[in-house]
Write a structure and sequence with these properties.
Length: about 60
């Protein structure tokens, strides 16, 4: 009898503790600066590759 009362009180205390918790804020975007820089670098790399292909095609056209 005493054991069930202790268990009941423990469960009630745990329920109250959990009910008092607020939802947590969204996690900060720690790596946002780095990922933005990486995406920008990928865009620049693509642009440079496109320019290189264009330049190579123009050279090939001039050699004809």
């Amino acid at each position: 009898m005493m054991r069930s009362a202790v268990i009941g009180l423990s469960l009630a205390a745990a329920a109250l503790a959990l009910a008092g918790c607020k939802p947590s804020a969204p996690p900060p975007q720690i790596f946002k600066t780095q990922t933005d820089a990486l995406e920008k670098a990928k865009g620049v790399e693509k642009q440079l590759q496109d320019e290189q292909v264009k330049h190579s095609a123009e050279e090939a056209e001039q050699e004809k």
